[in-house]
Amino acid sequence: MKIGIITVSDRSFKKQREDLSGPLIKKMVSNLGEVVDYRIVPDDRLIISRTIRELIDEIKVDLVLTTGGTGLSSRDVTPEATEDVIEKTLPGFGEIIRVKGFEKTPHALLSRAIAGVRKKSLVI
Questions:
Q1: Mind listing the pLDDT tens digit for each residue in 11-54?
Q2: What is the residue range of the signal peptide feature (predicted)?
């Protein structure tokens, strides 16, 4: 399985803060397949959606994992960017992400994480 990882963070994109979540996710999914692409992008809806499309349509990844940008601030647009490119939603993934996150912090309930399918690729 080919995997692409996208970290969404203005500060990490500008190199003002180290991205810790992307490398952690890469390590966590290494047993599922090969991470063929890992990118840090700013909190920009068009850039996020374009990156997801590129990973699936051009690089042909089977799985896209996004991290960041699911909160409540005006710059948190990862769910909207994901909705722009997926063909079908898979609500169960967002639900389980919130449940598992809630086991660590009640703030996880504020996550707007979503998942869906584009072509035959899964986007989470």
A1: 999 999 999 999 999 999 999 999 999 999 999 999 999 999 99
A2: none
Q: What is the pTM (predicted TM-score) of this model? A: 0.95
- The CATH number of whichever domain residue 39 belongs to comes to 3.40.980.10
Provide the domain limits for residue 53.
2-123
Distance, first Cα to last Cα, the chain: 15
Reported confidence tier of residue 73, pLDDT bands at 50, 70, 90: very high
Q: pLDDT tens digit string along 87-112? A: 999 999 999 999 999 999 999 999 99
- How many domains are there within the chain? 1
Query: Which residue carries 């169960």 as its tokens?
Result: 92
